[in-house]
Amino acid sequence: MTSTGSADERLNAFIGDLTAKGFLPDPADIWAKALRAVPRHAFVPARAWTASGPIDRDERPDEWWDAVYSDTPIITQADDGASDPTTGRGEPTSSLSALSGVLYNFGHLDLDQGHRVLEIGTGTGYSAALTTQIIGEGGAVVSVEIDAELTAVAEKNLAAALPGLKPAPTLIVGDGTGGYPTDAPYDRVHATCSVQSIPSAWLTQTRPGGRIVTPYGRWFGYGLVAQVDVLPDGTGVGRFPGTSGYMPLRSQRPADDHPAEWDAPGARVTRTVVNPRTIAYAPASADLVITHLAPGIAARRADDSLWLLDGHDPGCWAIAVSAEHEDVFEVRQHGDRDLWDEVADAYFRWQSLGRPVLDRLGLTVNEDGERLWLDRPENVIV
Hints:
Number of strands: 18
Number of domains: 2
CATH architecture of the largest domain: 3-Layer(aba) Sandwich
CATH topology of the largest domain: Rossmann fold
Structural class: alpha+beta
Oligomer: single chain
C-alpha cells in the first residue's frame, strides 16, 4: 500500500522528470499544475499490462506504482474486451498512453481557456480530465467512446479522481467517426486514436479557425500527427509535425484475417532487384507518400520479410522476402491488386520528389476527400 504522501512524491518526481526533458507543452507551469491536479494513478486499473509484463496493484504494488509513474504505455484492454490484457496476448485495443506522447499531441492542439473541445476516444478518461483542467470553467469537453464498458470505467475514474469537477466532461457512447454534432461547433477536435483519413464530420463540427489534431496513417508506417486548421469555407489545411503511434479508430481498422502464406495456392511469383528492407524501413515521409499513392495497404515488418495486406480485402496480400538470391529478391502476390508493385512505385515517386522530409508535406481536406501536397497546397502529389 502506498500512502498519499508517497503517491504525491511519485507524481511530483514524474512531473519534474518530464519538465526537465522538455515534454510539457507551453505554458509549462500551467501544464504542470494540470498534471498535479489529475493524478495518473487514479486512471490505471488494478491489473494491466506493460512492456515489462503484467502489473498488479494488490499482488505487486511496487511494480504497479513504478509503472504508473514511468513514461510507458499501460494496456488496459485487449481484443475489445474479449481477452484479459494482463496475459500479454491478444491485440491491444485501449491503453493509457505514454505520457510524453500524450503531451506531445496536446502541444500541437494549443488549448486555451474557454475552448470547447471534442475528444475522440475516451479510454480511461485521463486525457479528458487533463483537457478540462487546461480549458477551465468557461470551456467544455465532449468525449466520444465507442465502447460502453470503457465509458463506464472512465466515468467512475473521473468521479473518483476529481469529485465536483467543473465543467465535468460529457461522455458519449458512440462511433467517433461522426463526432458529436449536438454540441458543435468545437474550437478543437482531439483524437486519441489513429485515422487513415480524417472524417468529414470532424471538419464540419470544427468552427473556422479551429484545429483538429489526430494520429494519422498508422496502417503502413508507425503513424504520424496530423495538425489541421479549418478555414471559413470548411476546408482543412495542415501539416504533419511528427510521428505518433496510436491504436486505430475502430471504424477505420484494417482487415486482419488475411490467409497470407508463402506457399498459398494462386499466388503470383515475381522477382525484384529492390531490397524490401529499403521500403520497409524508409523514413516517415516515404510512408506518408506511400499511404496516399497506394491507399488501403497495411504493412507488417518481419525480420526476414515485408508483408503487405489490403486493409479492405483479406484475399489480397503480398510477401517480399529480404534474403537475396542471385542478385534478386522473391515476391509473392495474391488477389486483385499487385500490392508490392504499387508500394514500390509509390516509394520511387517519393524518391523522384527529392526524398522530401516530413515537414515539407501537407494535407488539404474537404468534402471531396484528401490531397497530399509538397511545400504548398497548389503543388499536389495526389
